[in-house]
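FORM 7B: Structural annotation worksheet

SECTION A. Query
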Amino acid sequence: MKTRKTERKINKLSYKAKVLGSQGRPRLGVFRSNQHVYAFLVNDQEGKTLLSVNDLQLKNIQGTKTKVAFEVGKQLAKEAKEIRIKTVVFDRSGFLYHGRVKALAEGAREGGLEF
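SECTION B. Predicted structure
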């Protein structure tokens, strides 16, 4: 019997096999737990994480978890601009494109990232 967790892992691996990030266009990965949300930019060719942002770093944000995810996306876009990254490949890591994952993506788009 497949559980939700194993389904997500299968989806994550099949998607990651198709989409790879590079130096010019890194992969924007997302992880969400029950309480927190994490976003990171990865260059898969070199196996290096270029940048990571999470809601634990943003202390002064109040509101719902969806609003916090939106702000994490905006902060990621701001820091990506500083290291001259404009375009990314979005990797939802097997999570549905809904709720906090969608809010993070919209925040990154509003911050100036293209995907």
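SECTION C. Observations
The radius of gyration is 14 Å. The chain has one domain: 4-111.

SECTION D. Sign-off
Analyst initials: ____
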